[in-house]
Write a structure and sequence with these properties.
With 65 residues, this protein is of the alpha+beta class. Helices cover 40% and strands 18% of the residues.
């Protein structure tokens, strides 16, 4: 599946389930898209989690609020 479509599907599913946040695998492109969504008011924000508890392998995670 396309990584960007997967990110949007995760965000949509989290909204439908009334979750406060959703974690998605990190990429620079996803970070740029999330920054645009934040500027336009579609999401409250995001943070990059680089601690060992949130990493998937060597890859950090982005937490979308």
């Amino acid at each position: 599946m396309d990584a960007i479509a997967d990110m949007f599907a995760r965000i949509k599913n989290a909204i439908q389930r009334k979750r406060d946040f959703v974690d998605v695998p990190y990429s620079k492109l996803k970070q740029n898209i999330l920054e645009l969504l934040k500027q336009e008011g579609y999401i409250q924000g995001y943070e990059i989690l680089e601690d060992e508890a949130h990493k998937k392998g060597n890859q950090p995670t982005i937490r979308v609020n």
